[in-house]
Write a structure and sequence with these properties.
Blueprint: H1 5-8, H2 13-21, H3 28-62, H4 67-108, H5 114-119, H6 121-157, H7 169-202, H8 208-218, H9 222-248, H10 261-296, H11 303-313, H12 323-332
Helix pairs in contact: 2-10, 3-4, 3-9, 3-10, 4-6, 4-7, 4-10, 4-11, 6-7, 7-8, 7-9, 7-10, 9-10
Amino acid sequence: MELASHDLAALGAAELVRVSAAIPRAAPRTFALLTACLVFPLSFAVLAHSLFTHPIVLRLQTAGADFHSQSAQWLRLFAYLFLYSIVLFVFSLLSTAAAVFTVASLYAGKPASIASSLAALPPILPRLLRTFLWVCLLMLAYHTVFALAVLLLIVVFIPNASESDPPSLSFLLFLIVVVFVFLGIHVYISALWHLASVVSVLEPLCGLDAMAKSRQLLQGRTGTAATLVISYFAVCGVTSLLFRAAVVKGRSEAGSLGLALPGRLLVGVVLVCVLVCVNLLGLLVQSVFYYACKAFHNQQIDRTALYEHLGGYLGEYVPLKSNIQMENLENGA
């Protein structure tokens, strides 16, 4: 597989997706097993968790004032959501680590196999976890500031309004502005996180250092990153909505497509396959986008040093020079 840096530097979002989609051809068996072992469980959990939580939500809506019934249903709902969060978290980290390592192996000319990708996971996961925890803190601060901004708008524009009074036009306009600003920030944080995950695997950086590095790499490529992130969110959102309408909701429920059982099974299988392909492509794109950002900033990656860095995860040898150190040596020459 050739990811020529001088070609990637000028590619837009559509071209990066096209290049990423061609990567599995270099190691079809490896990517097929990676998809079956990691990407499929992740995608299935994203869609199928609503099969368990939706009936509970319906029972909560019809439980009335029965405290014991409601408390039992709420406890069951939180248990399902907690289990879903654990599965999502684990397989997301595993899929990211394995995909980034496999693409980097192909880039460095290192033999790629599912065995080597899985063997590299134990030393990679702590690095990804540190980066993920810092991203979680950043997202917590982001949601806190967003909630405070909305609360401030309510206090300023409708301090004494009753429930029957419609919100003022100025309040709605400011609310729309705030929502769009924070949606933009959310997209940027998502791009920062995905790029920092790749940095955590391929460079001797993780946590805040990886986020700082990804922020540097995003300069000049923020528009492309936003296009990729929004497109991914849009496709995943549409797929989830279709799955809920066609599979999760009963035929008599509002918003249901009213399909019979064979149709629901067929559509469900198709939508799971679609999300599997989308998630695999997303993992490949985030790796390719890293190389594109490095090329855009004229930061050449020494493939020999990268080969040794990847070998260090497998216990083959400890690399004497990281790709970053080689890059600095080349820039100083």
